[in-house]
Amino acid sequence: MSVSSLSSLSDNETPLRSRRNDIKLNAFEKYDDKEFRARFRVSKETVLYLDSVFGSTIKPLTKRNRSLQPVDQILITLRYYATGSYQRVIGDIFHIEQPSVHRIVHRVTVKIANMRSLFINMPTAEERLEVANDFYAIAGFPRVMGAIDCTHIKINSPGGAQSESFRNRKGYFSLNVQMVCDAKLRIRNIIARWPGSVHDSTIFNDSPLCAQLERGDFTPMVLLGDSGYPCRPYLLTPILNPRTPAEEAYNRSQIRTRNPIERLFGVLKRRFPCLHYGLGLKTTNIPPIIVACAVLHNIAISRQDEVVEEDDPLTIVEEEIMVQPSNETNQNFIVRTSLVNTYFSG
Question: Which UniProt keywords apply (predicted)?
């Protein structure tokens, strides 16, 4: 049967009805739980949860024109996140045209990203003690509410006069994405809009989170960052030239305690390989996908969805720390010096 003749069939005829059901049947009935997570990176229950949250808002108004049901649209979007493939390839898998894949991915991505306020938040006053205890259990570093760092997401050259601002120091085009996580690898804050050439400290200094910390909203809690960040009373970094055993002990503890952020980037990019391989979309369409993947990551953690690798698991290697010369004022060292003397001198 030709494509044109298939398109002319009514909704009540078997070939079209079978085609409509292929996606859902192949996913929910053909694959067991492990196979399903390997292909879509979350569990069947999580897909049904997403459908319950926003499925009614993306439900087609008619059954004509091969309309896809919400669960099918969610699966197409998740498969795109899970492979990093061109949308045309995803379309071939699900037997729909590339423009339809583009619309579906954009529609579902916006819905997931809009759940950000429900799943990505800095620890509340009630949560901070538990978060701090989790970090303290790693290497004895006190009062930590998060580890902060940036990771690069590859993109195509956006073109135009500003395109070179997206070329990072490794030589490829990217967005530089800042995240804060807790010791359980839950993402607590994310900024996904800066060009790859922008330094980590610039992103932080311009962020609403920095303003909150400056106001003392989280005092006496602190963040831990690498040497690319300035040392401040609320953002503690390694000592560049430790001279005493206490300073060396501080550095060892600081580095081990902020390790969850490095682990997070590896876990996130293994769960959603599109973030590893890169996103060949318009630059304006990429930040929502990054945020949506972060939301899904936190949902997966809350629902205890393990990452199940496909046949060719990724090896994720994050960039090394770029050490910056220290030019902070003495006042910015007060908290760090106090911690060294109080917790690491013995």
Answer: Cytoplasm, Hydrolase, Metal-binding, Nuclease, Nucleus
